TrEMBL record:
Reaction catalysed by this enzyme: 5-phospho-beta-D-ribosylamine + glycine + ATP = N(1)-(5-phospho-beta-D-ribosyl)glycinamide + ADP + phosphate + H(+)
Top-level taxonomic group: Bacteria
Domain ATP-grasp: 107-313
Name of the featured protein: Phosphoribosylamine--glycine ligase
């Protein structure tokens, strides 16, 4: 199969590495890709959200399957444009992608489907939102209603912190259009996990799960980010618990989407909180997570390509999704100043040294080659240093050995990824 993978981050590098192992793959293109994906296929200078250009390239190159990595092109209607052009796309329609594109829409679907989730309200007025926060008290969660690259959530411990978040998003425009309206939710307490499933219509097939570390600092301190590391499988959330969570939180949503005439097909990534009263939904995402995918896909032993091809045909591949019994850990190395103002331009060294270590794999995200052929920092989350091990401790030791082998001026990372799993 000739495949076009859309995206440029660490998730896409991990997806490219996974797809490259498939005996069914004959050609792999990545748009726009990064220096890491260039080693696995052919990078194409087309932006991930440039839907017309992506479709035109796919037709010209006789692409058999388009695999969307990030959420933005799906929310922009990539799957719909592919359908019009007669191209196969392993992702949801624009209408179904609203599950991630609009937090308020997602809440509406949850309430209609009876999916357990935190109480939440949508606001288009900053003044009304600030009044509501004062009435509800803290801790409380403020979310940008639209897409904010995983950074549009503030888990506020005080009323003042929550009200400041509203002002920043709605009045000062810190999240752009995504924050013009906000959803304010009660704060769920427990262990957060990420659940992944292939979905088509009313049916879902379990992929697996991971535990993400969202905050920038050790001990879950500081602002939320797109994700600073992940562990797979997560502690205390085995396959039986994952299947039960699908029954409770994903399959009812799928039925509700069918009832609305906007059936979902693709990969669902459900962010869950394991509370004292059982799992509750934090949010739906309509793609693989980042950095969860890096840890999860490292353990995958079955062929991902046929499963994605089946989704593009609105069906589920009946071949079971299988993983090694090993543990995997992903540690994100970020630029100094991330997530607010990441510093770019520094030269990166040591990736080859890291990958020479047993069990270690490095996936690139915010990188590019300069005119001298050096690898330099171009984004906030720069690399995902991942490792497999016979247990969490071994995977963790290997991943951090990989981190220590890599350097650039301003490199930053959390030192406690996987610590709770121990």
């Amino acid at each position: 199969m000739r495949v076009l993978l859309v995206g440029s981050g660490g998730r896409e590098h991990a997806l490219a590495a996974t797809l490259a192992r498939s005996p069914k793959l004959t050609a792999l293109f990545i748009a726009p890709g990064n220096p890491g994906t260039a080693e696995l296929g052919t990078n194409v200078a087309i932006g991930a959200s440039d839907v017309p250009a992506l479709v035109a390239f796919a037709k010209e190159q006789q692409i058999d399957l388009i695999v969307p990595g990030p959420e933005a092109p799906l929310v922009a209607g990539l799957a719909d444009a592919c359908a019009v052009a007669g191209l196969a796309c392993a992702g949801p329609t624009q209408a179904a992608a609203r599950l991630e594109g609009s937090k308020s829409f997602s809440k509406e679907v949850c309430y209609a489907a009876g999916v357990p989730t935190a109480r939440g309200e949508r606001f288009t007025s900053a003044e009304a939102a600030i009044t509501y926060i004062a009435e509800r008290g803290a801790p409380i969660v403020v979310k940008a209603d639209g897409l904010a690259a995983g950074k549009g959530v503030v888990v506020a411990q005080t009323v003042a912190e929550a009200q400041d978040a509203v002002r920043e998003m709605m009045t000062q425009g810190s999240m752009g259009e995504a924050g013009r309206s906000v959803v304010i939710e009660d704060c769920l307490v427990g262990e957060e996990v990420s659940l992944f499933a292939f979905c088509s219509g009313e049916t879902a097939m379990l992929i697996g799960a991971a535990h993400d570390h969202k905050r920038i600092g050790d001990g879950d301190t500081g602002p939320n980010t797109g994700g600073m590391g992940a562990v797979s499988p997560p502690r205390g959330f085995d396959r039986a618990a994952q299947e039960a969570a699908l029954d409770l939180l994903v399959r009812p949503m799928l039925k509700e989407m069918v009832r609305r005439g906007t059936p979902f097909r693709g990969v669902i990534f459900a962010g869950l909180m394991l509370t004292e009263t059982g799992p509750q939904l934090i949010e739906y995402n309509v793609r693989f997570g980042d950095p969860e995918a890096q840890a999860l896909l490292l353990r995958l032993t079955s062929d991902l390509l046929p499963a994605l091809a089946a989704l593009a045909e609105d069906r589920l591949d009946t071949t079971p999704v299988t993983f090694s019994d090993q543990a995997a850990i992903s540690v994100v190395m970020a630029a100094r100043g991330y997530p607010a103002q990441p510093e770019t331009g520094a030269v990166i060294s040591g990736i080859a040294d890291a990958e020479a270590l047993e069990g270690v794999r490095v996936f690139q995200a915010g990188t590019k080659e300069n005119t001298a052929g050096e690898l330099v920092v171009t984004g906030g989350r720069v690399l995902s240093v991942c490792a497999l091990g016979d247990n969490v401790q071994q995977a963790r030791d290997r991943a951090y050995a990989g981190v220590k082998a890599i350097s650039w001026d301003g490199a930053a990372w959390r030192t406690d990824i996987g610590a709770r799993a121990l």
